[in-house]
Amino acid sequence: MPLAQNPLSVEVELPREDVALITVDGYLDVDTATEFQAHLANQLHHGRRHFLLDLSSVPFMDSSGMNIILRVYQETRRTAGSVHVINPTPAVRRVLDLTGVSITVPISESVDEALARADEAPETPEEPGAQSA
């Protein structure tokens, strides 16, 4: 199997038991999305409800990365959790804004800001099939 043209580095820290700070470095695209998804799935499996995604070192993200962010957002809503993107690069921010993802998934400038927003997340899980007003 050939090495990815643009390898991805993913580091996970746990600021609290229910919070995963995931720092991503490299291109988040079709070649690296599976690795990113595996890290998120592992944290979901271990009971993390809040995901802080530091994308400050991601120079490029395509729809593969965006779709994974939206999927983990949907999963966390079932457990009254949240997803927050931290300090995305201008190119990534543009993708999030143009696609409307930044309306659904909050964007924070710092880890502290994202942690504070995670603390404000609703405590009750979203009912399956429930629609927002």
UniProtKB/TrEMBL annotation:
What PROSITE patterns does this protein's entry cite?
STAS
Q: Check the record and name the InterPro entries matching this protein.
A: Anti-sigma_ant, STAS_dom, STAS_dom_sf
Q: Name one GO molecular function term.
A: anti-sigma factor antagonist activity
**Family note:** Belongs to the anti-sigma-factor antagonist family.
Q: Organism source for this protein?
A: Streptomyces afghaniensis 772
Annotated coiled-coil positions are: none
- Residues of the region (Disordered) are 114-133
- STAS domain boundaries: 17-118
UniProt-recorded name of the protein: Anti-sigma factor antagonist
